[in-house]
Amino acid sequence: MVDQEQNVIAHLEELRKRLIITVISFILFFIVGFIYVEDIYQWLVKDFDEKLMVLGPSDILWIYFMLATVVSVAATIPVFAFQLWLFVKPALLPREIKVTLSYIPALFLLFVGGLAFGYLIIFPMVLDFLLGLSNGMFVTNFTADKYFQFLLNMTLPFGILFELPVVTMFLTSIGIVNPYVLQKLRKYAYFVLVVIAICITPPDFVSDFLVTIPLLLLYEISISLSKFVYKRKQKRDAFLQEELPEEEGLD
């Protein structure tokens, strides 16, 4: 009992250490993002013809915090993934250590890729469609608050959901999930993804459709990648099982 309590305390201390490093990294990246908010802002609105408005001084500060937070989240992802890897490393086999370490850069790249997909493809398509509905009936003045909220709704979910394939590969490589389970859960996963698409898009069918299709494709890609990793894992395990009796026979 004493040894178990000591192990639990040691694990909690290690977890606390990893969380502190992650939080410190987030704060540092937030400060850097806050310093360069003006440059980020100018880049985000460079293709937007209209001047954004604010309705009060607090809106300016909120925009600074929002943009700095997005930068900080993106930059902290690899740090968080590496700290998580260090935390679970003692419980992993040598081959699992190498495999899981290779997923850390992929997490960051897929997150950035998801943001780019949402910003360059989904966001302009949905924005143009909604502006087209006005058909000259309205004066389209945008507040910076509403504009960036809409931009985040069109980009941030993709940054998170684009990590689904690599997370699935990781969980498959350590034996937590397999492609057959994912196939059985397909209809439930589709329902959840459709609900997510409806929640993050404006209330119109076209926007829902444009966001739903990529999410469903991501799930299918995740299943395919899970199959690939699962088959390789089975072959490797079978090879190791064949090698083990031979080594025992030599002994």
From TrEMBL:
Alphabetical keyword list: Cell membrane, Membrane, Protein transport, Translocation, Transmembrane, Transmembrane helix, Transport
Organism of derivation: Peribacillus huizhouensis
Entry superkingdom: Bacteria
Protein name as it appears in the record: Sec-independent protein translocase protein TatC
Keyword Transferase listed: no
Keyword Ribosomal protein listed: no
One matching Pfam family: TatC
Transmembrane feature ranges: 19-37, 61-88, 100-127, 147-176, 188-205, 211-230
Subcellular location: Cell membrane; Membrane
Family to which the UniProt record says this protein belongs: Belongs to the TatC family.
